[in-house]
Amino acid sequence: MAKQTGGDVRIGISGWRYPPWRGVFYPPDLPQRRELEYASRQLRTIEINGSFYSLQTPESYQAWYEETPADFLFSVKGGRYITHMRRLRDAATPLANFFASGVANLREKLGPFLWQLPPRCVTTRRSSTRSLRCCRATPMQQPRWRVAAMPG
Cα–chain-centroid distance for residue 151? Predict the structure, then answer.
């Protein structure tokens, strides 16, 4: 019988720019520009939440890569334009734009994508499967990425 290995469990936060955390989580004298650097040394993963509100730049993803330790992992929140405005319909071009925005600059620190659906989002298995197929077809795909199958 093959030996089974456990998964990598990480505990993190959903972003790093929260003014109420200054002087509480962050040291009082820490400049805002160093908050990611500090947080990434306290936790092993952080969600990039800004990507939900707007496309980020390749330069931003590159800077975030450089500011974090080698064993760090980002989760990237998918754009609300795709989930809340398009409601996963006709999402091929918006998905291509999202994946072309520079997220590949996170390289080996790129972890899972988080797709937050709106509370009353009515999707069918067919529409969800179509959207997931678009994700699989992007040039960003790497062998370690998996899209869970939709239940029956």
Answer: 23
Tokens 């699989």 map to which residue?
136
Q: Which residues contact 80 (CB under 8 A, 6 or more apart)?
A: 52, 53, 116
Residue 137 CA to its chain's centroid (Å): 18
- Count CA atoms closer than 13 A to 34's CA, side-chain side: 9
Q: Which domain holds residue 64?
A: 12-136
Res. 148: pLDDT tops 60: no
130 assigned to some structural domain:
yes
Tokens 């659906």 belong to which residue?
A: 117
pTM for this structure? 0.77
Specify if 6 maps to a domain: no
Band (116; pLDDT cuts 50, 70, 90): confident
Helices (H) and strands (E) in the chain, counts: 6, 4
Q: Can you give the CATH number for the domain in which 19 is found?
A: 3.20.20.410
